[in-house]
Amino acid sequence: MATALLHYTAAAVSDLGRKRSSNEDSYGFSVEHGVFVVCDGMGGAAAGEVASSLAVDEILRMVAEAGSAPSCEQMEDAIAAANHAIYTRAQRNQKLSGMGTTMVALAAMERQVRVFNIGDSRCYRLRKAKLDQITLDHSLVEEQVRIGRMTEDEAQRSPLRNVITRALGTQAEVKPDIFEFEAEPGDLFLLCSDGLTRELEDRLLESLLSLDLPLDQLCVRLVGAANKAGGHDNITVLLVRAG
């Protein structure tokens, strides 16, 4: 029996939040090529904004040049090019020294889905009303939790919760984690910066994502809930639905 092809739709919202004076998050996507990206920049004097926007632009440029849905190797090449662009720009401009960005990207080709991540921006999948976190944070406290040296509650309260152990653009080379699986009709993927996940627990995310709303309205609901919970950081939400 032939397997029906999946098609993907997407929507996104990026918000300043309630405490920050600038937005260092960036996002971009190409439904045509099946690639979706969220980045959360870091670095003083607007360097975070430069790093995150450079990463998104470079990844989507490389994908467009490939001319079709990118292979895993082509995505890795695009991420490496983004890393090089940020790193060399920071080397040339002292004001941008040390800048970097997290990155989470989803590449979909029919049913085959690959998720790439560096840092603590996340990808979740809602399938049949059940939410699963796909990515693993590259953060000091989350790595301590995974090896049993810290509880989730301790991680939430830790003064080190902002320490990232892997970022795009801060070193000459960096490798993403890669997760591969098959999508099913109705799957809903959430790509987001930590401005969302720091404010909202997974149970609330699951409840909100299960609402029967268009993707753009779901994005607005999620951002609104994060702002209502405190909005301590920039909030970026990118939703991708398989249908």
Short note summarizing the structure:
With 243 residues, the chain is α+β, with helices and mostly antiparallel strands. It has a single domain (8-242), classed as 4-Layer Sandwich (Phosphatase 2c, domain 1).
What do these coordinates show?
The chain is α+β, with helices and mostly antiparallel strands and 243 residues long. It has one domain: Phosphatase 2c, domain 1 (4-Layer Sandwich). Helices cover 33% and strands 28% of the residues. It has helices at residues 47-66, 72-92, 140-146, 152-157, 194-197, 202-209, 215-228; strands at residues 8-15, 25-30, 35-42, 100-109, 112-118, 122-127, 130-133, 177-182, 188-192, 235-242. The strands form two sheets. A five-stranded antiparallel sheet has the order 1-10-9-6-7. A five-stranded antiparallel sheet has the order 2-3-4-5-8, with helices on one face. Helix 1 (47-66) packs antiparallel against helix 2.
Secondary-structure map:
Layout: E1 8-15, E2 25-30, E3 35-42, H1 47-66, H2 72-92, E4 100-109, E5 112-118, E6 122-127, E7 130-133, H3 140-146, H4 152-157, E8 177-182, E9 188-192, H5 194-197, H6 202-209, H7 215-228, E10 235-242
Antiparallel strand pairs: 1-10, 2-3, 3-4, 4-5, 5-8, 6-7, 6-9, 9-10
